[in-house]
Every structure is written in C-alpha cells, then in structure tokens.
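I have been asked to look over a protein record a colleague put together. Alongside the sequence sits a line of tokens, each denoting a local backbone shape. Please read both lines and tell me whether the tokens look consistent with the sequence. I do not need a full report, just your reasoning and any doubts. I have pasted the whole thing underneath without changing anything.
>
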Amino acid sequence: MTWSGRKQLLLWIAAALVGGGALVTILIRERAPAPARRALYVIGVPERGAEMFFGGQQCSFCHSIRGHGGQIAPDLAVKRPGTPPMGWFATAMWNHAPGMYRNLRTGRSFPQLDTQQMADMLAFLYQSSNFDRSGDPVAGEKVFRDKGCITCHSVRGAGGKSAPELSGLGAGGPNELTRAMWNHTQSMIEPITNTLGHWPQFKGDEMADLIAYASQGRGVQEPRKENKPGDAVRGWNVFQARCIQCHSVRGHGGSLGPELGPERDLPLTTMQFASVLWNHAPSMAKLGRQNGIALPQLQREEMADLAAFLASLRFFEPAGSPFVGEGVFKLRGCAGCHGADAEGTQLGPRLRAVGDALTATSFTAALWRHSPKMIARAEETGVPWPILEPSDIGDLVSFLNSQQRAN
C-alpha cells in the first residue's frame, strides 16, 4: 500500500479518536466524583502517530504495520488489542521494554515520547490493528450458499433473481456498504425468514469473506476520495437523533437496548459492526414495533459518523479502583522501590500525581520515558522486571491519583 493510501486510511477514523474521545470525556466528567475531574484527557491523532512511527521516532526500523516496515520485531498490526485497549497497549510496551532496550543498545537511541506524542502513537497503533482484513473469496462463496443468500441474490449471474445482483458489493467503502445493508434490512426481514425459515447470522470474518467473494476477491474497497471520513462529533449527533431512544452511553440514553459505553465489548471493525447490526435487526425491529419506535434510516455519511463515534468509545481511559490499585502496586513489586504508599524512597521517586491527575496516556508515557533507567536499576539490583496485566493500568492510575493516607 502506498503512503498516500495509508494516509487516506488513517484519516478514516482520526476524527473518531479526536472528537469522540472529547465527547465521552464530557459525559464521564459530568458523572465523575470531584477528584477525578482534575484529569487532563489527551486525545491522540492517528495521522501524527503514523508520521512518528514511520519518520522521526523510527519505530518502523524494527517494527512493521501490515508488512510495511522492519522485520526485526513483530508487525504491530497483526494482533488485535485486548480489553481495555489502553491498558493492553500500556502493558505491552512496558512488559517488552527490557527486550527492546537491549536491542537498541547496539547503537539506536531509545525513542522519547511526551504525553501528546504517546497519545498520537497509541491512537495510530489502535487504528492500525482494527482495519478490516481482506476476506477469503473461497470461504465467501461457501457463506453465500450456506447463509441462503444464493436463494434470492446472484453473484456474476449465479444465483437467484428476486433480489439485486451482488457483484461489486463493497465498492463504495465499508461504511457505505453497512449503511445500505442497514437501510434495507427492515424490508428483508419478512421475505428472508419466510423463505429460509430463519434469519441468517454472521460470525467472525464471514461478512468480510462474503464481500470478498461478491467483489471478485477485492473485498471492501478503500473509500473514494469524494467520501468524507467519519466524524465522531457528527456521530454523537447522529447517535442522539437516531439511537439514544433505545441505547445509552454511560447511563445517558434509553434502556430498551444494551449500553454502548466504553466498558462494552463493541465490534472493532466496520465489517464486524455490519454483522452485529444484521444479526440483531429482527429483534431490534420487533422491540421497536412494541414501543412505537421505527428503525432509523441513515443518510449519506451518517453511518460513517456513527461508526466513528462508537469506535472512539473503545479507546479511552480504563476504569479502575484505588483500593485494588494499592494491592496491585504492592503485588507487582512497585512498592519495593517507590514505597508502600508511592511516597518515594531512596531507590525510586514519588509516584503520586502532582498537579494534573495522571491518565492512562500520561502514565504510559512516563513509564516509557523512564524505563531505560528502571531497566538499568533492575539489572543492578537483580530485581525481576515486573509484568503488568491490562487491567492493572486503570487500577494503578486510580491509586496514584487518590489522596495519600495520613501518617
């Protein structure tokens, strides 16, 4: 893929992480207790992260993104992030820091990232690992037959004639495909269930495989230049206008449908999002009829904007408990150098936040910047390098932001 092509893809959800994160921050801060409101949430811009990765910070000397870059270290787009994403990235960087540092001792400098740069880098890595993979057209032909699509639809002339030909499906981009499927789902529910006796369900990569087969192996195409990338700010407006009657984000909204906040395991890619919408369409339509709510029709860029907003909810501050964090701080061995209450000792500095509260991003940036010194100290003292779990980050940040106990 060319650099211009990558930039176009990077722009696709940049607005999600910039605008959506800020909007969700407002929702969370309004419901947060007073001490948590001191936190300064820094929103990353994936495009700036890409420029650092392939440019100034030279991460691509060792790492690659979908095959583009070095082969010394793992491709960072191959493995999808775990939950919570911010915690997953923070612990992945921390846990592998000694190995990276040893490899960099041969002459390359250890990359230095401030909080904003770390936010940009994490946003880029999160985005890179969540693009739709190309489907398998051979598997897609089986999906086309097994799911009963062939009964009504045809692909390159093979199949039923009572519904539109599907060749070239996905040429308008993933969000346009999802929008078209959603808008026509309500009219398809009755004919499909009457014909097949059930509503077919898509799982895993089956939707992507189906698109690959229908489009002769090309899969979902990159969005055309005239198509604007999704915008999370507009997506929040779409959510309020179309979805909030049934769904909520952090308690703001209806209760007929499931909560869609950052704690929920939402689909990571557009094709997974399309599958979820398709799979639940009959139950949503039934629930809507029972409550006098029609399934909304989405116009033009509204699906892209909505997807951008929902995507932004996943990449945010992980929740945590200061009480659990205190235990994690001791269990992982942090207290040995920094004191039981993170007050600081001769071996390690005070870690209690001073001024603005720590966030997962600023905490990750601090860990990364200081890891060379900590690695050297661990080697000198023979202390094993502590291994963190993704869930630890929210708890540790909450503990370090909490009030220090009185002596």
Observations:
- The longest strand covers residues 64-65.
